[in-house]
Structure formats: structure tokens, C-alpha cells
Specification:
Order of helices and strands: HEEHHHEEEHHEHEEHEEHEEH
Largest sheet: 5 strands, antiparallel
Low-confidence stretches: 364-370
Distance between the termini: 64 Å
Structural class: alpha+beta
Number of strands: 12
Mean pLDDT: 85
Number of helices: 10
Strand content: 15-25%
Radius of gyration: 39 Å
Shape: elongated
């Protein structure tokens, strides 16, 4: 028994019922710097750190009382400033009559593991602080950019109104004196200012959706599409467009923001089918790997998939300005809203064979599906 204790790789010590050391192997000596001769007959808690002594004493009494108890975690003072932290399993020693005469503790040095865990905790805390700092800095930058965008857009309105107003005044007062080319130039000025005004409005909308509070609720997206359909038909009664809208297109999101998404997608489908004598626009949902995906599909002019990555970028237009109206901001706004809902958006298309825009509502879709 003595040889096994001495050759063991684990720290092992034994005490009598008074807590006095009776066994002290070489591994204990390595950890504490206390030899077996120095330890014998002394209370084992003398070699522990102050904060471990009460715990060890209570544990010893529990073991001596033959009570069930788990492992003991204590720190032994060592030859260095760093104490040795041990996880100790205790067993009783008994005489021939079965009486408890002492306790043997077999330890596992967990100092390195605890140091590694502390280093990981410290690293994680440092990373969390850095991420928090970077996030705060990014948020501040975004807020500054949004404020700048709002300020610039707001300040541009005044000069545009002046240009438009003066151009109109010239047309009204001197229009009959101007040649056709002069009137045409003034009309181009007014058209450019109107387009610039629309661009400013869209930039402000893009800025607002990045700051707007999201209020989640169940949404009948199919009904939103129906309402937009009625609005477009009233404004363009000559158009022959077949709308196919699935009544299961129900989602979970912010009503105002998703309304902007529906408005942009339906208007785009209506606009890009306008060169065809008749058209079909479809709104529905499909399941992709357990995720609800909404889609808006049309059979209009489509687009080249080579440029699909530009579709949702601000100011990136895939068709000439003179051919189709628009500022190139609408789909960027749609993407911002979908991202704020934790979702994804993408598109597929083919030239003169139509386009389909897909989007998800992230956690909203899961909420709706239960």
C-alpha cells in the first residue's frame, strides 16, 4: 500500500480523525514544498490557503460521520505565489472493528485547467468588450451617416424648389417668346429637378427605415398586395394584368415597413411588365428546407443574372432611366427592411422572360409557423 502511494502520479495524503497528517506522498511534496517529515503530525489545513480551510474542515467532519459527499476543491499553498488547486476524492480508513480511524484523500491537480479556463474567460471578456466597443462605434457612425443623409437631403429641397419654381415662372411669363428648343430646355430642367426631388424622398425613406422602431404583428401580406393591385388598376385602367395572389401569404413583421416592401415589389412588377400587351403578376409562398419563403413573380422584361448582385444596391439600375422611371433606391430600401426583420432577399430573372424576387422574414416566419 505504501509503495503504491509513493509511486502514484496523483497527490495523496491521509489524516486521522483529528485532521493530523498520517500520509504524505512525494507528489504532495512537489506541490507544496513540504516534505513528508515536515507534514507528519501537523494539521493538514495548515498547508492550505486560508480561504480553503473552513471548507476542508467541514468536509472532513462529513466524511468522518460517514455521510455521502462529493469531491472537495481546495488550494494548497506552494513554493510559488500560485497555490496548487486540487479536486480531492476522500475515502475513510477503518480498523478491524470497522471504526473510522482516518481519511485518505486522492487529489487531481486542476491548477492548469483552471488557469486555462480563466485565460479563456478573460479572453472572452476582452473580445466581448472589443465587439461591444466596435458595435457602439459602428452604431455611432451609422447614426452620423443617417443624420448627414437626412440633413443633406433636407437642405437640398430648398434649392430644388427654387429651380423648379423659377423655371415654371419663366415658362409661364416668357414661354410664348421662347423657341421650341428653349422651352424644351426648360422642361428638361424641371424634369431633372423633379427626378432629384424623388431621389431625395427615396434617400430619406432609406434613412428612416434604418432608424425606425420595429413593431411586430401578424400581417396579411396577400391583402396588402390586393390593395396595391386595386390602386394601380384605378390609375391605369387600360392595362391588362392578371394578378394571382395566394391567400396563405401571411407573415410576421412591422406593418408599415412591410407595406413599403410590398409597395416597391408590386410597383416594380407592374412597371417592368408595362411593355407587354398583357402580363401576369404572382404573389405566393413556398417552403425551402423548412423555411417559409415569400415571392413576387412577373413575366416582364426580366434582367441578366450576371448583374443580379447589383439589383439591391443603391443607385444600381439595370435598365436605362429614360426607359423606366425610378431612382434606383427602392430595392435597396426593401433589402434594408428585410435585413432588419432578420430575413434574406434575392432575385432570379431572365431577359424578356420575367423576374422573381424572393424574401424571408427571419424569426418572423418561424413565429408565424409556430
Amino acid at each position: 500500500m505504501t509503495q503504491l502511494i509513493e509511486t502514484a502520479n496523483n497527490p495523496i495524503f491521509g489524516v486521522d480523525i483529528d485532521g493530523l497528517v498520517t500520509i504524505w506522498n512525494d507528489v504532495m511534496t512537489d506541490l507544496t514544498g513540504i516534505t513528508s517529515e515536515e507534514a507528519m503530525g501537523r494539521r493538514v489545513i495548515e498547508f492550505m490557503t486560508v480561504d480553503s480551510r473552513a471548507t476542508a474542515q467541514d468536509h472532513l467532519q462529513m466524511v468522518l460521520s460517514d455521510m455521502e459527499c462529493g469531491s472537495l476543491y481546495v488550494k494548497f499553498s506552494g513554493p510559488t505565489d500560485d497555490p496548487a488547486e486540487l479536486m480531492i476524492s476522500c475515502t475513510t480508513r477503518r480498523n478491524s472493528e470497522g471504526e473510522i480511524t482516518g481519511v485518505v484523500g486522492v487529489g487531481l491537480d486542476i491548477s492548469e485547467r483552471l488557469r486555462a479556463e480563466q485565460e479563456i474567460r478573460t479572453l472572452n471578456e476582452s473580445l466581448e468588450r472589443r465587439v461591444s466597443d466596435r458595435t457602439r462605434e459602428l452604431q455611432e457612425t451609422l447614426e452620423e451617416l443617417e443624420a448627414f443623409s437626412y440633413s443633406v437631403s433636407h437642405d437640398l429641397r430648398g434649392p430644388l424648389r427654387s429651380i423648379n419654381g423659377f423655371s415654371q415662372a419663366v415658362m409661364q411669363k416668357y414661354g410664348d417668346r421662347l423657341e421650341e428648343d428653349g422651352r424644351s430646355q426648360l422642361e428638361r430642367v424641371r424634369s431633372a429637378t423633379n427626378r432629384m426631388g424623388a431621389l431625395i424622398d427615396d434617400l430619406l425613406e432609406l434613412s428612416r427605415v434604418g432608424r425606425a422602431e420595429i413593431i411586430l404583428d401578424t400581417l396579411n401580406i396577400w391583402l396588402m398586395v390586393r390593395e396595391k393591385e386595386a390602386e394601380l388598376r384605378n390609375a391605369n385602367p387600360e392595362r391588362q394584368v392578371d394578378f394571382v395572389i395566394a391567400d396563405d401569404a401571411v407573415g410576421f413583421g412591422d406593418e408599415r415597413l412591410i407595406g413599403i416592401v410590398v409597395d416597391n415589389l408590386v410597383r416594380n412588377a407592374w412597371k417592368f411588365t408595362s411593355t407587354h400587351l398583357s402580363a401576369r403578376i404572382e404573389m405566393g409562398t413556398q417552403d425551402q428546407d423548412g423555411e417559409r419563403v415569400f415571392f413576387m413573380k412577373d413575366d416582364g422584361i426580366g434582367f441578366d443574372m450576371e448583374y443580379a448582385d447589383k439589383l439591391f444596391m443603391p443607385f444600381q439600375r439595370l435598365h436605362p432611366t429614360g426607359e423606366f422611371e425610378g431612382t434606383g433606391i427602392g430595392l435597396a430600401t426593401v433589402r434594408r427592411i428585410i435585413q432588419r426583420h432578420g430575413g434574406r432577399i434575392w432575385a432570379e430573372g431572365e431577359v424578356e422572360k420575367g423576374a422573381t424576387v424572393y424574401f424571408t422574414l427571419g424569426y418572423g416566419a418561424n413565429e408565424e409557423n409556430g
